[in-house]
Amino acid sequence: MGAWGTAISSNDTYADIFREFFDLYNDGLDVAEISKKLIADNKETINDTYDCNNFWFALAKAQWECKQLDKDIYDRVKKVIETGADLEVWRQLDADEKDIKKRKVVLDKFLADLQTEKQKAKSRKKKIIRQPVFEKGDCLTFKLENGNYGGAVVLEAINYSEYGHNLIATTRINQQIKPTKKDFENAEVLIMNYANWDNKPVVKWYLPARHKQTTHLIEKVDTIDVQIEYDINNSMLGFVGDFDFWIIQVVDQQLKSEETKPRSTKKQTIKELTKKSKWKLW
Length: 282
Prior knowledge:
282 residues, alpha+beta, six-stranded mixed sheet
């Protein structure tokens, strides 16, 4: 469960399910059909003790927004909240009691909202075609909390789409001088093992909803060749909307963790994500 706060929506699963629901809703599908599809397509998440609640919360909220909250979905969410099952998940993930208390307040308010009747169903939106903010192969640098330069590589750019996604790999670059093209080509991908992260590489689809607020933090240094094509429709990677948090601050958090805890033994390089293998398997 990739959570960055106590809010109902502050985790990858909720964000992904809620976004997909309204993508389908804006395509003209009805709520029951969308719900059935999401349940069928997300069995692994639904069967995950630590992540299933986020799925049901997102589905319930999306249905409520459309004034079509299914009773079975509502009853499921109500039971999870009233029994404290979600708070127990947070305890098992070693959340501190301060955050658990905040989470309880959030859950109670969420349930209260679901118990009210929305005046008007959410309107379907006409899709607006956007371009991504970065180009494939862009090498991006930014300042870290320690004053050094960090870096990230843009692995994909989805052109002429509704959201303009970029696939971005955050690297372990952490140096006093501005990184060069060679530094990016030889860089390792940042692997998170701080807090509750279990050796997760920081490779995310970036939705530039708040990009204007972070442009001053980012500088394009150069461009490298990315030979691999990444399909957003068949991707298991998460979606993020905060460059400052998910691309920059994760480096700060990981570096701080490594002051007292060994870095992950897992290793992935930018070359592995950009260069096609020379070997052909028969």
